[in-house]
């Protein structure tokens, strides 16, 4: 069976700056994959290329055995996306938005409506007439994740899914994701919260300056007895003493 | 601090794409060229006028400028750039300085009127009856009058924005303002001309006695009762400064989000049930995902404060402009009277353009990603958005037919059908152009902001130049009807225009989709990017 994600020599530049510089990546099906890197390392750009939101300058992308961009629609049909920027329509209620997303993914209307109601309950979102524009940041993340689940995708691409979510919401979301992996889905997520990655992911890749600096199981990465944080800091070359400012 | 704000704004604007900058530059050139011509005309007219003519027309002209300066931003729903207080209020900047920047922005919003005042001042100075010696006096009068207008505009803008942010007040207020604007024109056009003129003369005398700002400014410029006039305009300017500052302070403490918040309720009221039926209707006749997109658009737009306001303006503004001409009497505007319904409906179509089809992804902002991420073809997205716009356009037409049937304007079923067809064909051409504009010049709009985010005055000026192009086929159909005096020829040309419009729409759609796929990264970026400390028009 083809891997969930297979990327070869992926490149993307903005002017003279290479945001993604020859990335090779293989994510096995059924894995919980953490994609880490410091700010500006190229994580979001990679996810955006995987989802077809931006074109790659060069390289090959294969998702669930389908080639991007040739089989773009087949890929989109099978992935659930939680982007860094909100993809929510502010003037719809949570229920209306979830139903809309379901229908965009080809679900029949009664099915979309029923799943929307179920997801609202699952994510503990109120089923009132409140529009998304009035939601808190955590609620927005929850409804975005609910939307990514509605068509029951095989692969989830998530950019900072826990950002701004409270402890209760984060726990709920984690349980749902673990359950999805248990049922055969693949999860590819970026997060700056290394504790979350450490608890959830079985495989990790670290990107720095647009290049993959390590890729393997979490156990391999911590084989020297290092914590994930120590390994991360070492691999991205950020081990320097904090300079003190006289005036601070 | 002001320099820091302006620099931050400059740096924010630097990130705008070259296409957008070029587009703004061209529309700016067109808009200000028109007003330069007006200012020059005023200059030459006043330079050659007699003293008595100046005494009569300068105060009236200044009154007109004042009305335009204060009312036009409201009527065009484009209140100009303003400070984005959410971003600035956290810093320890004295409110007085923020107000100064806000006043400067009001100056830029009324720049065309500054040009006309400058033209008028040059005209007065060039006039032999007044003489060059009146230079300092005239310049002082012009400066004080501009200052008065800037401060008054600042205050009225803050006040109106707060009022327009309230859910139940917004549409009523727009309607009331339009009626207020319409009333004098209506009276003038329908009543006895001489009686109206006499009443206006009486108003002129009263204006002199009360020493209103435009009269005072005119008196100073022309050398009449200078001291009284100076005291008067000084008083008015101080009053405007107090009003502007007080309203600005209240605006700083105003929570627009709370004012627009949805009342908590789980059940549906009767009105909400009706609305729900309206939203669900496309689903009954269209397949998904097209139906889902149309339904989403209907729901979103109906809840967007700015869209609702423009919708109200769509059917009231046309009536305001054209009805007085029709009611003036038979014979005076026979052709207009005959085509009244069609004219006001096409006018409504053009007004809705700025929030419907010229920038159809504007209100989606960063959520536009979903159209590129979901497994639905982009032409369905554009078609869905166009269909939703068409639903609102025909809703406008329905309202206008209802209102017109209650007015003493005669029209039959034939004209209703003609209007429906003409509006449909015009929509084809405008949406064809609109789809291309939407992917070439996308711009994020804040759906919660009532007055910010639509087309600016300059954009509207360009659109006014573009509209005749898209209306040419319809114009040719009417020309054919006039030339051949035949309904059959008219219908044939109209049908031909419809076919050509359909082909054009299809070609434009293909082109727009191709462009959107190529530019998807830029489109998402343009629609997701926040603005600087100054929220532009």
Features:
A: 6-stranded mixed sheet; 9 helices; globular; B: 537 residues; mainly alpha; 2 domains; two-stranded antiparallel ribbon; 78% helix
Plain-language structure description:
The complex is a heterodimer of chains A (248) and B (537). Chain A is α/β, with parallel strands linked by helices. Chain A has a domain at 5-87 and 154-235: 3-Layer(aba) Sandwich (Rossmann fold), CATH 3.40.50.300. Chain A has helices at residues 43-50, 72-78, 94-104, 109-122, 137-149, 167-182, 194-200, 218-221, 228-235, and strands at 5-14, 17-27, 32-36, 58-63, 66-68, 79-82, 155-159, 186-190, 203-208, 211-217. In chain A, the strands form two sheets. Chain A has a six-stranded mixed sheet, with helices on both faces. In chain A, a hairpin with a 2-residue loop joins strand 1 (5-14) and strand 2. The longest helix of chain A is centred in the last third of the chain and has 16 residues, at 167-182. Chain A is globular. The model of chain A has no long low-confidence stretch (mean pLDDT 86). With 537 residues, chain B is mainly α. Chain B has two domains: 23-175 and 211-259, no CATH class; 288-535, no CATH class. Chain B is 78% helix and 1% strand. Chain B has 23 helices and two strands. Chain B has helices at residues 2-14, 18-47, 51-75, 85-88, 95-109, 111-126, 135-164, 170-190, 193-210, 213-222, 226-252, 256-260, 270-285, 290-302, 305-327, 334-338, 340-356, 369-373, 378-405, 413-440, 457-484, 487-518, 520-528; strands at residues 82-83, 534-535. In chain B, strands 1-2 form a two-stranded antiparallel sheet. Chain B is globular and about 75 Å long. The two termini of chain B are 23 Å apart. The model of chain B is unreliable at 452-456 (pLDDT under 50). Chain A binds chain B through residues 48, 51-55, 73-74, 76-77, 81, 83, 85-92, 96, 99-101, 103-106, 108-109, 127-131, 133-134, and chain B through 257, 261-266, 272, 283, 288-289, 291-293, 295-296, 299-301, 303-304, 363-367, 369-370, 372-377, 447-448, 520-521, 524, 528.
């Amino acid at each position: 069976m083809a891997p969930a994600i297979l990327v070869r020599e992926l490149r993307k530049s903005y002017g003279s700056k290479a945001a993604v510089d020859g990335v090779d990546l293989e994510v096995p099906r059924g894995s919980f994959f953490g994609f880490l890197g410091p700010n500006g390392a190229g994580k979001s750009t990679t996810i955006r290329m995987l989802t077809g939101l931006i074109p790659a300058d060069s390289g090959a992308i294969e998702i669930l055995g389908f080639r991007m961009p040739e089989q773009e629609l087949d890929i989109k049909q099978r992935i659930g996306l939680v982007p860094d920027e909100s993809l929510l329509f502010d003037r719809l209620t949570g229920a209306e938005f979830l139903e809309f997303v379901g229908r965009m993914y080809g679900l029949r209307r009664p099915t979309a409506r029923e799943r929307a109601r179920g997801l609202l309950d699952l994510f503990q979102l109120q089923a009132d007439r409140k529009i998304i524009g009035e939601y808190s940041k955590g609620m927005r993340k929850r409804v975005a994740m609910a939307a990514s689940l509605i068509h029951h995708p095989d692969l989830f691409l998530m950019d900072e899914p826990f950002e701004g979510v409270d402890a209760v919401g984060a726990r709920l979301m984690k349980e749902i994701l673990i359950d999805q992996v248990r049922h055969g889905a693949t999860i590819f997520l970026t997060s700056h919260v290394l504790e979350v990655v450490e608890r959830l992911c079985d495989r990790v890749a670290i990107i720095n300056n647009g290049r993959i600096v390590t890729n393997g199981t979490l156990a391999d990465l911590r084989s020297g007895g290092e914590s994930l944080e120590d390994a991360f800091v070492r691999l991205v070359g950020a081990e320097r003493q904090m300079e003190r400012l006289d005036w601070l | 601090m002001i320099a820091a704000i302006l620099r931050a704004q400059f740096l924010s604007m630097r990130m705008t794409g070259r296409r957008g900058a070029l587009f703004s530059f061209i529309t700016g050139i067109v808009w200000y060229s028109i007003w330069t011509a007006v200012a020059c005309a005023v200059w030459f007219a006043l330079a050659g006028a007699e003293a008595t003519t100046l005494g009569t027309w300068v105060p009236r002209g200044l009154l007109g400028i004042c009305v335009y300066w204060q009312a036009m931003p409201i009527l065009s729903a484009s209140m100009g750039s303003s400070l984005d207080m959410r971003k600035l209020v956290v810093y320890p900047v004295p409110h007085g300085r923020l107000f100064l920047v806000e006043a400067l922005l009001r100056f830029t919003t009324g720049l065309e009127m500054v040009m006309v005042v400058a033209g008028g001042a040059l005209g007065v100075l060039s006039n032999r009856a007044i003489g060059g010696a009146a230079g300092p006096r005239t310049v002082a009068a012009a400066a004080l009058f501009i200052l008065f207008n800037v401060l008054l505009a600042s205050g009225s803008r803050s006040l109106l924005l707060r009022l327009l942010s309230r859910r139940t007040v917004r549409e009523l207020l727009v309607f009331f303002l339009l009626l207020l604007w319409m009333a004098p024109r209506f009276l003038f056009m329908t009543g006895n001309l001489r009686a109206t003129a006499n009443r206006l003369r009486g108003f002129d005398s009263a204006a002199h006695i009360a020493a209103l700002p435009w009269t005072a400014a005119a008196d100073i410029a022309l050398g009449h009762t200078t001291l009284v006039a100076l005291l008067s305009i000084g008083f008015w300017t101080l009053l405007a400064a107090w009003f502007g500052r007080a309203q600005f302070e209240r605006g700083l403490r105003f929570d627009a989000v709370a004012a627009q918040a949805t009342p908590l309720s789980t059940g549906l009221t009767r009105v909400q049930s009706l609305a729900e039926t309206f939203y669900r209707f496309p689903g009954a006749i269209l397949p998904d995902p097209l139906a889902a997109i149309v339904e989403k658009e209907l729901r979103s737009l109906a809840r967007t404060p700015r869209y609702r306001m423009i919708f109200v303006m769509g059917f009231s503004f046309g009536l305001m402009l054209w009805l007085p001409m029709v009611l003036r009497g038979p014979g005076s505007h026979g052709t207009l009277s005959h085509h009244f319904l069609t004219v006001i409906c096409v006018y409504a179509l053009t007004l809705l353009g700025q929030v419907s089809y010229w920038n159809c992804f504007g209100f989606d902002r960063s959520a536009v990603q979903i159209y590129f991420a979901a497994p639905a073809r982009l032409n369905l997205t554009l078609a869905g958005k166009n269909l939703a716009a068409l639903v609102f356009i025909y809703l406008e037409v329905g309202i206008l037919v209802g209102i017109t049937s209650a007015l003493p304007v005669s029209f039959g079923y034939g004209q209703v059908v003609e209007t429906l067809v003409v509006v449909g064909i015009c929509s084809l051409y405008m949406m064809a152009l609109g789809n291309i504009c939407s992917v070439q010049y996308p711009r994020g709009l804040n759906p919660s902001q009532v007055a910010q985010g639509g087309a600016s005055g300059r954009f509207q000026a360009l659109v006014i130049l573009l509209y005749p192009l898209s209306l040419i086929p319809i114009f040719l159909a009417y020309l054919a009807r006039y030339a051949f005096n035949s309904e059959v020829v008219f219908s044939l040309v109209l049908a031909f225009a419809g076919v050509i419009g359909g082909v054009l729409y299809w070609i434009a759609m293909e082109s727009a989709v191709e462009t959107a796929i190529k530019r998807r990264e830029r489109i998402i970026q343009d629609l997701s990017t926040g603005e600087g400390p100054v929220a532009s028009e």
